[in-house]
Amino acid sequence: MSGLETKAIVDINQTANRFTSSIVLKAGGRAIDAKSILGLSFSLLSREQYQLEIYGPDEAAATTAMKEAFVRHGLRVEI
Known about the structure:
- This protein is an alpha+beta fold.
- The chain has a single domain, classed as HPr-like (Histidine-containing Protein, Chain: A, 2-Layer Sandwich), CATH 3.30.1340.
- 44% of the residues lie in helices and 25% in strands.
- Helix 1 packs antiparallel against helix 3.
């Protein structure tokens, strides 16, 4: 895993953990809790299209922040 991937995993995880909403990352046929750094480390290894499902009381703010986190690291995401 390169330094860029590590930075992306940590940034996305920290961003997700700022919110109470459920944030699920779907990639490669898997659904991973974005608040799980271990799950992210297995899911963000390739440059593919990711899908996020966000539900909860702060989902609007979480959606904006998560999209920004993915874009910061050049990762394609659909919400």
